[in-house]
Amino acid sequence: MLAQTIVNGLLLGGVYGIATIGFSVVWGVMGIINLAHGAYIMVGAYIAFALNQWFGLDPFLAMPFAMVALFVIGYALQAFLLNPVMHTSLLLTLVVTFGIDLFLIDLFVLFFSSDVRAVHTAYSGSSLEIGPVLISWVRLVAAILSVLVAIASYLFLNRTRTGQAILATALDREAARLMGIYPDRAYGLTAGLAAAVAGAAGCLASTIFPISPTLGISFLGAVFVVTVLGGIGSVAGVIIAGFAYALVQAFAATYLGANYQQIVAFSMFLLILIVRPQGLFGKPFYGES
What we know:
Blueprint: H1 2-30, H2 37-55, H3 63-82, H4 90-112, E1 127-130, E2 133-136, H5 137-159, H6 161-171, H7 173-178, H8 183-206, H9 215-230, H10 235-255, H11 261-275
Helix pairs in contact: 1-5, 1-8, 1-9, 1-10, 2-3, 2-4, 2-8, 2-9, 3-8, 5-6, 5-8, 6-8, 9-10, 9-11, 10-11
């Protein structure tokens, strides 16, 4: 039972990690707590579902389409709605992102109804058996793809000129402007990247979780916990934290019962806030990382 619990936690941890990357980076770079992030995950899941139903496309192969669509949505919303208000007050950005979240949820209720959907593939029920441990092929592939997307996101931010421009803007907006970087464009690219990764997370989640317009709401609590645990703006940190969070949930569900997994996870969240507010792998200021 111990080995199976560890495997279950690890396989789910990658999805939590990739679901958090965009939320954490947007918070770190722009100081925005994007309450619409869960809705982006939900949109990605529905794109995977729609492409699977209409064209028979495997949900994992739907990831590039979801990422492109979500990049456009994230960039456009940042450029036209959030850039004009992000330097006014935190409360106003919370209101705007909450409004975007409600709009997207209601939009998908209108088009897909509130019925719970699922993506079925030929290998959905298949597992790899290693001794007493069963490893779901769907969860294994989702975990591997999560790590690959996380590595790609890390390399983009730290090894490309565009990524360096985003990090420079996070460190000092005015200094970045003097160096020829357009902060509003950098913010748009950050939001687009964050939404694209959330779309990829939605595609992966569609293979594991039931799909409904409220799917993103169930992810938002986990995203907050993983962000705080991993450190705001730290891509590597949130991936490690995603695995840690999923392991805690798996052990709590196995040994205490499913009703206790959220209690234990959020208790960990409060403990981290008290002991190390910047997270286990973060620094007090994102620009220092």
